[in-house]
Amino acid sequence: MKTQWKILPLLLAAVYAHAADTTENAAVNTLGDVVVTAVPAEKPEQIRLNPKAPVQPIPAADGAGLLKTVPNMSVIRKGGMSGDPLFRGLGGSRLSISASDTHFFGGCGGRMDPPTSYIFPEVYDEVIITKGPQTVTQGPGVVAGAVQFVRKPYYFLEAGINGNLSLTGGNFGRFDAFGEVTGGFRWGYAHFNAAHNQSDDYKDGNGHEVHSAYKRNSQNFALGLTPDENTVLEVAYDRSRGWAAYADRAMDGTKFDRDAWHVRAERKNITSWLAGLKLEYGHSYVDHVMDNYSHRPKSAPMFMVSNPDRETDTLRAEGQLELGDTVTKLGIDWMSDEHAFRNGGGMTAAMAERNYTSAPRVWDQKFRNIGIYAETTWQLDDKQRLVGGLRHDQTRAEYNRVAPIGQGKTVATVSPQDLEKTYRLTSGFARYEYRNQGWTYFAGLGVAQRAPDFWERMKGESWKLKAETNTELNAGVMYQGDKVSGSLTVFGGRVNDFILVDGMKARNINANRYGFEGDIAYAFAPNWKVGTALAYTYGQNKTDDRPLAQTPPLEAKTYIGYDNGTQSLTLLMRNVASQHRYATGQGNIIGMDTGSAPSFSIFSINGGWKFGKNMSLTAGVDNLFDKRYREFVNKSAANVAGYNPSNGLQIYEPGRQFWAKFQAKF
Q1: Residues 139-164: pLDDT tens digits?
Q2: pLDDT tens for residues 107-127?
Q3: Are 64 and 84 in contact (CB under 8 A)?
Q4: Maximum Cα–Cα distance for the chain, whole Å?
Q5: What is each CA distance from 618 to 32, 460, 565, 566, 662, in whole angstroms?
Q6: What is the spatial distance between Cα 72 and Cα 54, in angstroms, rounded to a whole number?
């Protein structure tokens, strides 16, 4: 028996004893139900998730795992963690990812470490997903949408302390532990949290091990001053350390180090027309090491190490104006991003380590972006409103003339105007909303422009790439009643100069995309609910007259659940159609199409018990019938020594997985 299972009962008993001793005046916190599909949207084109609630299937220990519950959100698997999220088939820099209002990027040229790999969801208070180009406040290039991991400031009316603890365990050696403590008084607060996540290699439905083990530790500390209920001055520090094994490539991530600072100053309710001012600064440094020997039997002739790093600074100033029936956010943001690398190799591991650590770091690409934006909500009457925004960015991208890019080639022969390029980007949207007796109807048009990113600019002759432009129409309806709730969103658009990765190169094409997301839930009896969510995206490469690569197939999630406030039980069925629309050898910076993928159906079940005032225990079984299956949007399995290869197919998903999660608040 694993050590974590031996200590789990003792930890549960200790927490239960502490909770039993809390005073009657302690705040009672509601522990959320298990999230099996995304919470129904409260606003058009926006979904909000509670990252502290249990999730089925049990997520990888990073931000991408939580996003799996969102209809039309896919996660490209590389191993046990560090999945790359795509919304409606678009990811990478097309999907804006921010944590505490700060954007940052991973260091790996092969996307070992997307931003979500450094994010543990429970650290945050809320996750906000915006669909499509329907916001201008989340930086440039919001082509697919935006994901915000939000941590809110703390206000205390009197001196106090509160905390949160969660423990998650499962087979395949899965063990997560998270704890946070916040203490404060009227004038300020201190907050600390820590998380530990680990897992062994998982097994697919045929009992074959997949090279996928990982381990990570992360901490966050925040110190805030709150002179009054409208003011906060906060400085925060984030630290993350970890490693991860990968099933899709010849190297593993032996070092995932991130250190980040975040400073914010915010003042609300300043005057009758100035509702707020906010100033934020963020600094992120990622130091990433990958090699071919630390976490796998060495099969290559040489011991090889690669050590990229990345330094990103962001600054944003925003004001909120309330003039008559309008609320307007005016802002300016700035970002500086620099990527560097060093490599090493040798006949022994010690030689490889010595060679790479003694090598100088050489920067290969730099980016500078400055943007201004305005986003307004205009309340026409008690039923109608208009929402719109406009944004303009100037992005400067620079190559280092002596640094290698794309297949070892240098840019030494490239003209000076191609070494440094400036992209001027304009984005905007307008949306009409009508609400009446539980119904909300909406329609919007959005345009988003995006410059080629770091990974696309690594491809052959990529300095010739143009910025891409997505013009997208969205429309839908939402309903919230006593027993029935649901929503339907349809979208369609054209992406001009879409940046397609085609083999070892990137080039511009034109593409059409359309699809939908729909969900409905029905409380058919007291404490009982049944619901389903359906999502589909269609993409066509018009330039080549081929399917647009990496577009997910039709998917449905259906559940039936019982919850009386104390006990709960839910059965979930996930059905995914086969995908025969593919473009072999084409894709994006994350993955490429390799062929078709069959349909599959997966059943899962979970149950929960809330006891005491602030505690709950949830347990579940994912992939109940231990089916062997693989996703269409996924990475291809590599031939890792000691593991059963997938014969060039995508990586297979975990087989039957048992899990349990305990939560307590005080």
Answers
A1: 999 999 999 999 999 999 999 999 99
A2: 999 999 999 999 989 999 999
A3: yes
A4: 74
A5: 11, 50, 13, 11, 6
A6: 20
